[in-house]
Amino acid sequence: DKSIIKNEMLRITKVSFLIIILVCSFSAYSISWTSYGDSAETVLPLNVLTIIENNEHSLWDEFAMLSLIPYVVFHENNAVYVSPIVYDCNNLPTQYLLEDWLNYCSQYGGLDTLLTVGNISHIHSMPANHVISFKLEDPLTFSLDVAEKLWTYSDEAVIALINEITFNDSSSEIMFSGSLTSPVLETEFDTPVTDLASFTIDRIDGYPGCHLSVDSGDAFSIVEVLMRTKLGNVEQLFLEWLPHVGIKNDTFFIFVPGISVSAAIKTYPKSSSHVKVTYFPGKIHYILVNSSPSYIHATLKWSGENTSLKLYLISPDGYIYSSSSEVSEGLHVLKAVGVKTGKWALVVVKTSNYGIANYTIEVSIGNHQRQLGCMLETAANAAVLASKLHAPLILADINSSRIIDELRRLHVEKVYLLGINDDRVVQFHEWLINSGFIVEVLSSLKSIREMLGASGCTMFSYFENPSEFAPAALISAFHNFTVLALGSSHCEEHDDIYYIAKMIWGWLLHSSDTYHGHKELICPYPSYEISSLWMTKLYDKTVEMLIDRLGFEVRKVIISSSRYDITAALDRSLAGSLIVGRMIGLDHISRTVFISRNMLSRFIATLNMRNMISATFTTYAKINWSEGSPKIEYTPDSLKTLIERSCYELEAHTHLPNIVSSLENGSCMWIYLGHGMGGSGFGFFKPDVWRGYEKGGSVENPDANFDGFVDSSDNEEHYYYCSIYDFNASIGNLHSMVFISYGCVSGAWEVPTIFLQHGASAIMASVTTAYAFFADKVIYAMVKYMVIGKKFGEAFRYVIREYCAVYGKKMSGFVYTSWYILMGDIDLTLYPRGYSSCKPVLLSEVYDTEKPRILQFSYRVITENNSLQITVKATDNKGIKTVVMYYSFDNSSWNKVEMQFIGNSTYTCTIKLNNARTVYIYVEAVDFFLNVERTAVKEIHLESAYNLQLILVILFLPCIAILVAVIVYRKCLCKVS
Fold first, then answer.
1. Coil, strand, or helix at residue 763?
2. What is the pLDDT of residues 891-933, one digit of tens each?
3. Residue 562 falls within a domain, yes or no?
4. DSSP class of residue 136?
5. 356 shares a domain with 209
6. pLDDT value at position 564?
7. Phi-psi region of 350 (alpha: psi -120 to 50; beta: other; left: phi over 0)
8. Are residues 360 and 374 in the same domain?
9. C-alpha–C-alpha distance, residues 297 and 362, integer Å
10. Is residue 455 within 8 Å of 551, Cβ to Cβ?
11. Does 532 map to a domain?
12. Residue 157 sits in the same domain as residue 184
């Protein structure tokens, strides 16, 4: 039957194909098994805390910070990862920062990783899931220990050439001595009844000190003292405000050699003034400085009953550069750094009315080592580059074999070698090349800047504190900025920057008026030499230096320094033309905390802040605020409207307890419009009202004398002075609040320091006298830009350009210079814009401790060419670096072959069997962090495989024969039919 034959043929065909499939399967002799399982830069918090021992006797702790920066503050995948670094100390800013950071991490399971360096004795133990401790050692050993302990793989590394350099060169010593025996001289006279009385204060040989007192009776009076400088310009020595009845006795100044002095008394209403001029004896000693940059240290000692002396240092340009500070009775010390070549004068003057003084002055003159500056610059920029590359940093002083061993362990292919003006670069380069590495040498700031692609720079000075390079490196790593040390350049023109800034500041100090125990710095008008000449020159020289050293026009500058080392004159000269901000702190320890807080503020502030702005209004103006319409209103009204339209709540208070309560209630900013008290505190008003008012006025009508300016300090029944010390004792953690101050000199002394201590993230305040009306406009404009989300640095630049003198070449000036400066990170914004509460990233998520996964592993013997083919499917959460197959024939030595990637997570390789009877194989998959996953060793008996294949072939041949016979039979049937 044809149907039976057809069905039988189909059955035979199916069986034959099944046999063929089985034979093919066994012929491959394959065994497989399967395992199952599981982008501008974004700022991300890293769940880490780093604490470093504070070593006051070396820079080891600062170099340790640099070694750790690339591991805990770094750039990767279009994001910058940040975590706090602090020194081991129990000061208030450190306590508050740790409180905020630990509270933030506690929302997400607590602190994950704690890194400690050295002996940690001041900060109590931190609860952390992982603790990694390092011994504080020399920079080379420490950086290699960090690389060995923390890094598992990196195809790039950064090496910085450092060495042990003493902080100062050998110095020359000079001794002066003398006696001040002359009595003080006094002269008195009355001015005619007028609103402006001018007169000359004559010099008297041997009497360089002068005290001026003026009594204008009940009249409001202002005393202005002017000097004609060596450059022929009239310079304001001081501007003395005498708003209260009586004599003010703190107008002491000295005659600068070769300079005449004049004075003017302005009174309102017209009045006669009684003037008393007291001359104090003194002597002038000259010293010659032959190189730049240098330092002058002078110790003044004297003896004599009821006597007191003071020492002044006069620059070659005729300015007060520095003055002495009291150490103990009969002992003063003067320290001046950044001194340039020229003839300097030391003026010793008696400051008491009685007694005979015998004195000695011991002077030490030495050079700041430029090579020290270059070395610190090298190390800081190396940390920034390593942070950008997210690569280990090695600080090398010798070509140790351990460096090569560590580079090879990490599988480093390319090394970036940094050594600014360092002759050892050639030797190290040759050594690394001969060791098999690709080496790129970066031996200038320009080449480093080009490698970084940096848009800005951070400036620091090593003159007063060499440790400053570490916090400068930290903030630069965050911003990817080039680090520049003032005084490290071998161009003396560049030295003028520090010198001019210091000279301006020294003059402002000498011109100041002591107010509430603090110096009230009087800001010179633009018509005087400081503003019209030196500030412009400071700007020009700074910009020229930046172009010369960095090779491009910098637009963003961060100054990492106290306000007394690199003085605020530098900030102010650049403001308006550049985006400029300052990382403040009395020392590098508090500055490091301030920087860490600024990096983390966008996260930790979310714990306590809300859309609320606090304000205190006790002194303010009535101004035409509108654009294009004649609307006139008080500044508090304008600010209130502005703030509430910007979706913020305004809480205005004038009494300290209410202010403190408001700040603790989640304010993101406190605006203070009131007297700055010479930087010594605040002017408040009680009982609490939303704005202060003058005597005879009210909250609704605060301007009782109708002059357009509300000064509630005349309302003695309600107005009171709160010292910064009382304020300090009243407030707690400010949780990254921003402070903006109207007041005079609120940016110069303790006020910014107190806010830093209590956890403020940014401060904008005046470092000299603030002028009414203009100050209102400055504050209003800053708030206007901040509430719409502008970055602080950008907002500050706009404000200066709109309302203040700008010293850039193509900028116009204003009548009042308004010496406001910004302290804090230039890229921060006002809460809540740019702020987020996100889970801190774990180190394990970044550095990858997870092993690769081998999902499939198969092999087959290929008899045609006597070879073994292996196929592997492997994956990894960060990516596979390599897959290697290891094999051994008949218990011989092991060999390896790197498998080839063929797509779809699959790797393959083939090896010749060379008549082996048994082969042992296993596979290793390695990811980019050198995490390894390997299979078990598989033993393959090749003889059994051959025999099995022979048996299968023998069985297979009859099947083929049957199949052929069936096909032939079928064809025959077809022909018969």
1. strand
2. 889 999 999 999 999 999 999 998 888 999 999 999 887 888 9
3. no
4. -
5. yes
6. 86
7. beta
8. no
9. 8
10. no
11. no
12. no
- Considering the domain architecture, whether residues 333 and 348 belong to the same structural domain is answered as yes
| DSSP-derived secondary structure for 162-184 | -----SB---EEEEEEEEE-PPP
Number of H helices, E strands in the chain: 22, 54
Question: Is 321 within the bounds of a domain?
Answer: yes
Alpha-carbon gap, residue 150 to 143, rounded angstroms = 10
CA-wise closest residue to 180 among 277, 362, 298, 307: 307
651 contacts 670 by C-beta, under 8 angstroms = no
Distance CA 338, CA 486 (A): 9
Q: At what angle do helices 535-550 and 492-510 cross, to 10 degrees?
A: 150
Verify that 357 and 397 share a domain, yes or no: no
If DSSP codes are grouped into helix, strand and coil, which group holds residue 683?
strand
Residue ranges of the alpha helices (H) in 769-928?
A: 774-787, 792-803, 843-847
Residue whose token pair is 């002591």: 514
Do 715 and 637 share a domain, yes or no? yes
Residue ranges making up the domain that contains 444: 47-167+370-490
Do the bridges between strand 938-941 and strand 932-934 make them parallel or antiparallel, or are there none, so unpaired? unpaired
Distances (CA, A) of 705 to 638, 709, 950: 21, 9, 118
* pLDDT per position as a tens digit, 613-651: 999 999 999 987 665 555 789 999 999 999 999 999 999
Burial class, 673, CB count within 10 angstroms (exposed 0-12 / middle 13-18 / buried 19+) = buried
Last residue of a domain, one of 776, 791, 824: 824
- Torsion angles phi and psi, residue 844, rounded to 5: -65, -25
Peptide bond into 293 cis (omega under 30): yes
| Token reading at 753 | 């320091």
Q: Give the integer Cα–Cα distance in Å for 388 and 316.
A: 44
pTM of this prediction exceeds 0.70: yes
Is beta strand 294-303 parallel, antiparallel or unpaired with respect to 331-339? antiparallel
3-state secondary structure of 826: coil
Q: Look at residue 70 in the predicted model and tell me its pLDDT.
A: 98
The number of domains in the chain is: 5
- CA 724 remoteness from chain centre: 26
- The span from the CA of 128 to the CA of 105, in Å, is 10
Which SS3 state, helix, strand or coil, does residue 677 take?
A: helix
Element (H, E) at 445: helix 445-452
450 and 378 housed in the same domain: yes
Q: Which of 24, 49, 40 is nearest to 480 (CA)?
A: 40
**Are the beta carbons of 162 and 383 closer than 8 angstroms?**
no
